[in-house]
């Protein structure tokens, strides 16, 4: 099956609509939007500099009108503050190892319960903030008070004890499953209570995520069907996940080699069947290289489920999921009055994936009616949230991407793994050529970065210095000096020397594609030596529904046309 690209449109199925209210003013359809942001992404911290992600922008475009049955919930990315679950500051462990992911998933499940309860009760939540924080933990309550009086319990322990729990819901599947099932039963009883005047004819969920937030979104969908959404119903009401929209999924949880620690098992990351998830759309980065950001494809053993779309886009991780500020690394700048450059949020590659994801989501709903969960850009809330500006996408960007695919010289019929590797080699060939020519400082993006990104340009240059050192060591290929590099670094080095360069490719990479490795140096500091020891000359790891990393094998150029999708190739 041909891999779809940014030039193709997702194949979207509009789910059968839930039964409409037959003139009864107290019958409603509940719409719940869940938004899990990416590693290091936090709208509350990023919006001022226009560095907020696509997930945050989609969240802003979703309706919030509890009285009419529209709810939306946003979880900031791991590594950033999230007070709802007790994370007060930034965490290098969240950024480096995905810590804090499971509490966010549990938080999401609790928000589904809260949305239902709030709607039926016209206001009150099922769980208040302090209860949510306690539940989103692995806090343990002493089994007896023989050695500990009630007065000595912490606030979280007291809350859990009051809820009849001995532990929080994190790191405890049996407790979480039993608790969620019990809560679902209570809400079903509330809905069926003759005293409840409001009645629901259906529940739609729309779930979005980026990076580790995309992994959380996928696990959220699986856990939802395990405890809440059973046999097509939730709380006794017909329900489904109408849309699962994810950007460049990365799990990379824990310290294990697979990155599938704790909650992020390969089984949990698989997309639920179409009886649960009606549409899944996954946008994948073609030029991401970091070791700690392996791709979690929605494919299973190379096969794409019929209700899933997976499209590849040029750029690195945050070029697809969003999160770069305009001007960062000298990208996303516009010419004003013929000679003056200004920062231009709309000239980021991520604006293309943002608009394509919204377009896919709109195909699943009654468009721009009172039943749609999406705001009209010209509505009062749409204007207040500056949606016309947030989603601005010039034709120029679309044309640049189309021109890139025409110029890059990669066979579009290749399977996913060799396709991604071929595009990555094209990018590395450009970086190699710039390096051997000693032309990095002369790049337009570097010159612009000195003016528009002076606080971070040093990391851009440090990344280049590391690449220069890696190329120097590869020339001598001393096993002692190259220890720790990717196993295929030597073959990659050989391949990029022979790839023909063109002005079109070079200008595209320089103008549009960020260096995610250099960007990571800022957040990791010296920890990058351990986390990203393989540097630039490597292939991105790719998982396909299993714990085996299938995209670490290098495909030689003369083998690419006959390549098939590998199914079990270890790192």
Structure description:
This protein is 38% helix and 12% strand. With 571 residues, the protein is an alpha/beta fold. The chain has a domain at 412-562. The strands form three sheets. Strands 1, 2, 3, 4, 5, 6, 7, 8 and 10 form a nine-stranded mixed beta sheet that branches. α17 crosses α20. The radius of gyration is 24 Å and the shape is globular. The two termini are 25 Å apart.
Task: Supply the key terms.
nine-stranded mixed β-sheet, 571 residues, disordered C terminus, 38% helix, 13 strands, single chain, two-stranded parallel sheet
Shape: globular
Count the DSSP helices. 21
Stretches where pLDDT falls below 50 for ≥5 residues?
566-571
Q: What is the share of helical residues?
A: 25-40%
- How many β-strand stretches? 13
Helical/strand content category: alpha/beta
For the termini, the CA-CA separation is 25 Å
Protein name: T6SS Phospholipase effector Tle1-like catalytic domain-containing protein
Domain T6SS Phospholipase effector Tle1-like catalytic: 238-358
